[in-house]
Amino acid sequence: MSSLIGYSLLRRLSVVPKELSAVILPVRNYRNRFIRPALYDFNQRQGKINKSKKLLNESEYSRRALFSDWNYDVELFALGARLRESFNFELVREALRDPTLYLVSMKEKIDLSLKDSEASYTRLVELGREVISASLNDFLTKTFPKVPSDGIIAFQEYLMSPYVLASKALHIGLKDLVVSQEYPPSKNTLSNAFCALIGAHSESGNNRRQSYQLVVDLVATQIIGMDLHDVWKIQNPMDYLSKILAENNMKEPEPRLQWASGKNTLLASYHVGIYSNQSLIGECTGESIETARDMAALDTLRRMFDTDLSKRDIFFHSNHVEPSSLES
């Protein structure tokens, strides 16, 4: 103990010997002895609360609308401000009211000022799906002009899947704005609410170009950094490639083994190139000749359709779309 006191005194006087300056003294951080049992008790209590909620079929999450400082009108205004769009808030109220709303008891502090409008909600959902479908079709057709119709349909179906739409609804803050019996809202509830919101935007006096740009900004941007052929599953790539080459007046594809290594081992590697009219149009590597041939065919299709991540340029602004397709 005395040596430590002497060392600290020397440090203050800045006359620490060289042989002591290289010594690293251990430092121990002490916790009060009540911390561990307190944390253990907190976890036990939380476990009992969660278990009782499960037995009573109650959600582990609290509705934000039940808080005393909740203001639904302000939240709707903030939604429009976040999206930088103008909305008719009466339509937005209808769009965010799930039909299961009327099964919720009146004692909950949720805005129930509107009457039962299930028909209006269904109409907004259908209108929103039509707007999203038309906007995505315009965008994908202009962005990928070389991709055939079945590829465009595959991309569009992925972007309109409940998972993608629910994800976008969650990230723009619709989880607490959707009024429904269940909480948190399910994937289908969120996706329907997102479609209804787009329908409400279309009926709020906004023209086709504005609705198109909103859909592109929120939904179409999901293709950034994504391999589109993970969505568009092409069965029998060689047969499909032969069909595409025939439509473009090109000769049949000829797969050729360019090199191989590690044959008859676990690390076997084969490199196959696809030739047409004695020109290399695609190549790839695989663990077997069949796999390498199919991957080379997919690589050829990527080059022909300009869907390779390193080549395609995507413009998300409506100025890059023909005005005739966006007329209101």
Automatic annotation (TrEMBL):
Residues 232-320 form the Large ribosomal subunit protein mL44 dsRNA binding domain. InterPro entries: Ribosomal_mL44_DSRM_metazoa, RM44_endonuclase, RNase_III_sf. It is found in: Mitochondrion. GO terms for biological process: RNA processing. Residues 71-200 form the Large ribosomal subunit protein mL44 endonuclease domain. Keywords: Mitochondrion, Ribonucleoprotein, Ribosomal protein, Transit peptide. Transmembrane segments: none annotated. One of its GO terms (cellular component) is mitochondrion. CDD domains: DSRM_MRPL44. It comes from the Eukaryota. The keyword Transcription does not apply. GO terms for molecular function: double-stranded RNA binding; ribonuclease III activity. SUPFAM superfamilies: RNase III domain-like. Its main location: mitochondrion. Belongs to the ribonuclease III family. Mitochondrion-specific ribosomal protein mL44 subfamily. This is Large ribosomal subunit protein mL44. It comes from Lepeophtheirus salmonis (Salmon louse).
